[in-house]
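Narrative of activities, Objective 1.

The group set out to show that a structural description can be obtained from nothing but a protein's sequence at a throughput compatible with the screening campaign. Below is one input-output pair from the validation batch, recorded exactly as produced.
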Amino acid sequence: MPRDICLPVERNVETIMAIHRIRDDRKGELARLMRTKGKHPDGGGLYLQVASPGQASWVFRHKERWASIGPASAYKISDAREKARLLRVEVVEGRDPFTWLANSRKSAIGETFGESLAKYLDKKEVHWSTSNRARERRDHERTFGQIPEFTALPIKAIDQAAKNGALDQLGKSARRKATSWINAVIYFAETGTVRQRGPGDYEVEHHEAMPWAQVPAFYAGIAGIDSDDARALRFTILTGARTDEVIGAKHKAPATWGEILDVDGQPTWVIPKARMKAKRRHRVPLTPKMVALLGDRRADDVPLFKVSNANAMLNTLKDNGGNGYTVHGFRSSFEDWGAEATSFARDVVKLCTAHDKRTKTDKAYQRSDLLEKRRKIMQGWSDFVVSAS
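Output recorded for this entry:
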């Protein structure tokens, strides 16, 4: 065969190899990368972005901009490469590749975040006072106006990597607000319901929760860290408590040894109502594993843990393979475990995290906080969490 016919074929093979850098073969490189946090280049602007093990997305980079193609759980590597090829065609022809991506997603899988946001604000504003409506709406629109690539994503295509990428572009104050707003808009898009506060109730904020089946492996990974930061995180995971209930906050005192009591011969953490979100005293049955994390008894006014800073537990979580999840999310991990892996009554499981969902009638006839029933649940959770340690 003449050489001038063979050469184009050889150059084409070299180009493919330069672009398709991630091997999806029996050696398991793709599977390994799925467990490795970071952005892994496949070439030609395509990256595998891993927020944490099991939480990965395909993303495309053009100049200094990034956009999510979709979760790796839904898009095979061949699908992502084809999308990336079409995006490169847009670039070569002088068009904005992200506009094409947004339009293709919209036509394929429905309403965008921006469209849902507009409908959400129309419904939400009736719950704001008349004097605040214009300001609240402006605040939402100004915040989301800073992340146009995110608002162009279809609701069904938004995963944790897409959320993280959007939040990283915002300032600290805007990021804090946008975290709950994003979840509220997605909840509205999926259910048609706007969350609202009622008397004695609180607006629900979703915090990214580690899947309950992954908690033992994560816990085992931090079990050997000899620091109060890590011990506080382990205690928080086992007890299902809130961060500020354990280590305090700017205007809230931390847990102290004076709250560790003997109740009917059993160790119990009794949190006074002044330190509880719902302003009701909460009793937490302590298991031997929880007590072991506390160490020797000290004076009543001494904090249980002397952490390095207000973000000590979150930083420990991020530094040990839990980036993308939150400390607060372990409360959901616990409740999901109770619902999916046990036969414990749902209302009693929720009582363990101070979520009293019993009706007024039930409370009238059942005034106890069901401490002994909850002690069995907390022992089951404790045994499960430490099972891989």
